[in-house]
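Lecture notes, continued. The same structure-token format from the folding unit now serves as the input rather than the output. Read the line below as a description of shape only.
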């Protein structure tokens, strides 16, 4: 599974600096040695008393360029108007070298954040989801979650999910630690302290192997306050698509194969053609590179294979699966 290449680690509020304003030293950091073409992702989690409207984090600058806001989850506690916010920001196609990350906030806020560099594709952002929950520790309201995205554009992606709360919170773990991440996820960073000087939050990530929509639900031990969740999926840099043809064993080891594939009935759609491909030595498997983008990952298409020269072996219609590697 892909992992962050370089990271700032957790930044932001602490016991000495519980409330931070734009320009505070705790709202900037440098990512050292970012690789060319990588994507920097910033997760921000913020809280402020008596703020019913308005964004708490107003922007993020990465390497002197404004980052793109991928997802902003926000929630307001009923009655007291305490506002909680969780955001995911990104800047793709970084130049090599050090990159300064600066977070701007509206007024003074309690905030924790981190920035990480990832080997994502040139246009990495795919799907997002956000959610809010009031008093998520109570039986009648679900634990904090991010909501579920729509179907992914490709199967091999990285999901980054985060949730934040006001103080007095434990993310399925012990006080003082990052807590237990959602099922199937790996913890990125987290704070679970019962402290007004830090914003309890958790961020986590996982990889995907299908185009099904994704979500994250966060385990909660205690707490009765608002939470906000955000999630984004990112395409990987090295994804390749192909057709895996499940042909008969008679085609094993054949070379110089011509292949025709149809996404539906052959009389209802044009065929895609491959020439001079080879079958694997066993299993009746033929791999056809770069199927059309409109053929979704995981779908099945119809294929005919034949060998124009030599033994002139061939197949009837056989199924093929669109896959990613």
């Amino acid at each position: 599974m892909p992992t962050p290449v370089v990271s700032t680690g957790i930044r932001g509020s602490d016991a000495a600096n519980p409330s931070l304003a734009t320009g505070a030293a705790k709202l900037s950091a440098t990512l050292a040695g970012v690789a060319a073409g990588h994507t920097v992702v910033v997760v921000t989690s913020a809280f402020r008393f008596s703020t019913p409207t308005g964004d708490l984090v107003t922007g993020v600058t990465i390497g002197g360029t404004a980052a793109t806001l991928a997802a902003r989850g926000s929630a307001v506690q009923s009655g007291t108007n305490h506002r909680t916010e969780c955001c995911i920001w990104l800047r793709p196609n970084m130049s090599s070298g050090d990159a300064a990350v600066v977070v701007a906030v509206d007024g003074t806020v309690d905030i924790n954040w981190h920035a990480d560099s990832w080997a994502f594709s040139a246009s990495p952002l795919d799907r997002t989801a956000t959610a809010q929950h009031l008093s998520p520790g109570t039986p009648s309201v679900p634990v904090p979650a991010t909501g579920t995205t729509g179907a992914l554009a490709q199967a091999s992606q990285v999901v980054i999910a985060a949730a934040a709360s006001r103080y007095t919170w434990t993310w399925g773990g012990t006080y003082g630690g990052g807590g237990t991440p959602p099922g199937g996820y790996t913890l990125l960073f987290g704070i679970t302290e019962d402290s007004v000087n830090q914003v309890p939050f958790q961020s986590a990530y996982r990889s995907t192997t299908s185009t099904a929509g994704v979500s994250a639900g966060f385990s909660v031990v205690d707490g009765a306050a608002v939470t906000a969740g955000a999630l984004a999926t990112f395409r990987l840099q090295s994804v390749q698509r192909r057709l895996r043809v499940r042909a008969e064993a008679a085609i094993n080891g054949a070379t110089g194969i011509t292949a025709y594939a149809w996404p539906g009935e052959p009389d209802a759609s044009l065929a895609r053609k491959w020439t001079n491909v080879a079958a694997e030595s066993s299993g009746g498997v033929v791999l056809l590179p770069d199927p059309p983008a409109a053929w979704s990952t995981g779908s099945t298409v119809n294929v005919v294979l034949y060998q124009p020269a030599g033994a002139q072996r061939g197949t009837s219609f056989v199924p093929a699966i669109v896959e990613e590697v």
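Point for the exam: The chain has two domains: 6-236, 241-324.
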